[in-house]
Amino acid sequence: MTSTSDAHNLLKAANLSVSAPMPGGRRALIDDVSITVRESEVLIILGESGSGKTILSRSLTRLFPVTSDLRVDGSVTFEGQDLLRLREGELSPIRRRKIRYVFQEPMESLNPLARIGQQMRLATGDQSNSDTLLHSTLRLVGLDAGQELLDLYPHELSIGMAQRVCIAMAVLPSPTLLIADEPTSAVDASLRRKILDLLISIQRDRMMSLVLITHDLDVARYYGDRIIVMYGGKIVESAPLKAFFDNPLHPYSRQLVDAQSTAQKHASPPDRNAEAVTPDVRHQGCAFQPRCPIAENKCKETAPDMEQFAGEREVRCFCLK
Ligand SMILES: Nc1ncnc2c1ncn2[C@@H]1O[C@H](COP(=O)(O)OP(=O)(O)OP(=O)(O)O)[C@@H](O)[C@H]1O
Ligand code: SF4
Ligand SMILES: [Mg+2]
After folding, report:
1. Higher-confidence residue: 278 or 44?
2. For residue 298, which atom of ligand 2 is closest to its CA?
């Protein structure tokens, strides 16, 4: 993927592939993905369930369980070093302080046996963080943090409070990059907007880069600066946000944006189950071909590469020129 200037790039992943062992050989879950995260931007990663958003975001810092047999290839350049070449002992301080994550399920991210204050310190590896700093960080995420909150266990929190605590833990060491993987999918609709607004206000105040993973076009449209659309473990389109919504180029992007406009007209959400087909990345031709309204014969045989278009856009489709 191209960028305006390397000087403004915070992180650059090139030719990233993640594969898992399957009967008959390794299968690519992420296939030759290149992305750039620029300083102080909100980069949206959009894609339906199973498209590879979580695997991609975790592969940037090799954040997989130690027992995982996923293999990550490619490079991830951050502050002049390739994160994929670092040893675990060199990578973990970067995960603790510079590239932080917020996940979908707050209760899975919290240690059920540790009090909130204790786990905020454990998460960043900095036992010297003062109560004052913990309180001010909790206030940043809208939690009125008396001493009693630091002394609570996770099961004593509501889901909304738990997710705010997770965001506080993520921003506590002032990371340069926050990766939020569907951070509001566990909370109810009334809280979603509040939590996303909080994230964005912290991102702006701290000039931090935010990768916001979502399958919700409204979230993408409202909060993003640039967007990457994933399908079947590959990027199919990347674009500045306004250009994307004004004129989505890839047939899949068009379907998504059209479905959203139709849903808005009829005041009902698109049928997400209808979209929730896990594409088969082993498909010989274009992975989107079975669902593509403009597919041609060659789309069954050959997989398209990313092509550049005007206005810093890239699209994976033969049939647009
Ligand atoms: N450890 C693993 N081993 C094998 N396959 C995996 C593993 N983890 C995920 N997958 C598969 O990789 C694909 C991408 O998964 P991923 O979790 O990244 O999707 P996603 O886009 O984040 O979906 P969702 O929106 O549901 O969170 C899916 O087909 C999933 O089943
Ligand atoms: S390459 Fe062919 S099948 Fe794939 S999106 Fe383009 S037109 Fe559709
Ligand atoms: Mg996911």
Report:
1. 44
2. 2
